[in-house]
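Class prep. Sample record?

___
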Amino acid sequence: MKPQFMSSNLHPMLNVAIKAARAAGAIINRAALDVEAVRISQKQVNDFVTEVDHAAEKAVIDTLLGAYPGHGILAEESGTQYGAKDSEFVWIIDPLDGTTNFIHGFPVYCVSIALSVKGKIEQAVIYDPTRNDLFTATKGRGAYMNERRIRVSKRTQLKDSLISTGFPFRPGDNFKAYMLMMAEVMQRTAGLRRPGSAALDLAYVAAGFTEGFFETGLSIWDVAAGSLLVTEAGGLVGNFTGEAEFLEQRECLAGAPRIYGQLVPILGKYSKFAGAGDKAAVRQATATEDADPADAASEGDAGAAQDSADKDESAPL
């Protein structure tokens, strides 16, 4: 059994966040014992919200506001409904990141809690209740996993790197552009993984388990805590063009510095902030992908048959 992570050396606000994350984790673990009994309602197609989300979020908010009633709250399920509305201190909460995994009994999900002070992330906790893994960071004090200091991977070559990602799954997502992006990364790396929890993906970059991570369509509560873990572990995080102000831009790239530097030129052209020329090239590439493969195949067969006939006609008798 790993020790309860409460230490006088930690920032008091971080200790409260740890307590909140563990409270949510206990609720999630109890529910996981009988996940089929969890009633499911749908927010959007493939984007589930469960009773567990709400119960875990309430446990987090009650713990945080019990200690700091003057702080603000920005939570995935309840938004800014709770907490002070004008505080410089805002807790950013995802009570269960990886809900779809949880519903299926696939054990990759976590609780994510970050504290923003005057718009900057200063405290971070990501708790994986299935493994009892606790990732923490305080700005300027480094990143930790279960009380051990963590650092990003030392690998420097993309070809040796393991990269994690998240697939688009919401209506309106640009699947074709993503498939091109994924193909470009996949061909240059040792492997591409899709675990299904962006917050945990970022924690794994911080711990050096993967060399990088990229995903589009993410909300601030998906990336707030993980982004501080990455930077405190010596990594870089930003949007696809490498700009650091990414928290509310719905695209996230993180990695060990050398790997991050190699991913930006690959992914930058797919960014919403890419230049006009890059955007045009991506549009053209996705338009090519739009051609029906069956039509292309039949056209190709017809063309091949005609080529064969032409050759036969020109062949000497």
